[in-house]
């Protein structure tokens, strides 16, 4: 397994035989592994800390979207389900 700075591309065929080493590098050395097949990036292995950070960012974006939607409802109001079904001929 070759070592690069923060992210490393590793072919699946190599990753199979080095999974424990890759997991340790990700968990303890705070590296990221990008698994490839035929030169194409397919998946990434990241630490739990990185995953939790990504999930927190997603949660914040979801919260902002929900606040915008609520503000839009306050500004424009809502449409009843029955009205929408009539409009769409359902």
Descriptive notes:
By secondary structure, the protein is α+β, with helices and mostly antiparallel strands. It has two domains: about 5-45, YefM-like domain (YefM-like fold); about 50-85. It is built from four helices and three strands; from the N terminus they run βααββαα. It has helices at about 10-15, 20-30, 50-75, 80-85, and strands at about 5-10, 30-35, 40-45. Strand 2 and strand 3 form a beta hairpin. The model has no long low-confidence stretch (mean pLDDT about 90).
Question: How is the topology of this model organized?
Answer:
Layout: E1 7-11, H1 12-17, H2 19-28, E2 32-37, E3 40-45, H3 48-76, H4 81-87
Parallel strand pairs: 1-2
Antiparallel strand pairs: 2-3
């Amino acid at each position: 397994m070759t070592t690069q700075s923060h992210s490393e591309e590793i072919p699946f065929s190599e990753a199979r035989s080095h999974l424990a080493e890759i997991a340790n590098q990700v968990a303890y050395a705070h590296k990221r592994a990008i698994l490839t097949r035929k030169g194409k990036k397919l998946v990434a292995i990241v630490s739990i800390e990185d995953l939790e950070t990504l999930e927190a960012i997603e949660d914040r974006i979801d919260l902002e979207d929900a606040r915008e939607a609520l503000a839009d409802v306050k500004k424009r109001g809502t449409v009843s389900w029955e009205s929408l079904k009539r409009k769409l001929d359902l």
